[in-house]
Specification:
The protein has 144 residues and is of the alpha+beta class. The protein has 5 helices and 4 strands. A 4-stranded antiparallel β-sheet has the order 1-2-4-3, covered by helices on one side. The two termini are 22 Å apart.
């Protein structure tokens, strides 16, 4: 059997995503989407690391202060990865909220959803297994 192409994986990810969202609702959570697609520019900013982002922000400060602030703020979430599955449309980060509308930061609900996601396919990955709690993806090229 021929290996699945990137486009085929992207299509499968898009078809499977509603199942994940429906499961979150069935578990009693409200859901918003976090990062779905990371642009090439965002990937490069992530890869700079905190020190590199600060240096770029300093260059931008005078002419583009709002952009400089965004580059600095990116450091709260950036993990130094340039080649993320978000760049390939094979990953999503989800935000879960309880019945009172409070953002859930405890990992247990995400892990429950992650177990469901992994049950949907042998290459489905849950970020909590490698330190990225809200992340759900389909493995590609050795990346998860």
């Amino acid at each position: 059997m021929a290996a699945e192409s990137l486009r085929q994986k992207q299509s499968r990810f898009a078809r499977m995503l509603p199942r994940l969202l429906d499961q979150a609702v069935k578990l009693g959570y409200d859901v918003t989407l976090g990062e779905c697609l990371r642009s090439d520019e965002q990937a490069e900013i992530n890869a700079l690391g905190e020190h590199g982002r600060e240096r770029v922000a300093q260059v931008l400060d005078r002419e583009f202060p709002l952009l400089a602030a965004k580059v600095r703020n990116n450091g709260k979430w950036a993990n130094g990865i340039r080649d993320s599955l978000h760049c390939y449309k094979l990953a999503i980060d989800l935000n879960l909220f309880d019945a009172q509308g409070r953002w859930i930061q405890d990992s247990a609900p995400y892990a429950k959803l992650g177990a469901y996601w992994k049950s949907l396919g042998p290459d489905h990955r849950y970020g909590g297994d490698f330190g990225d709690t809200p992340h759900y993806s389909i493995e590609h090229g050795g990346r998860k």
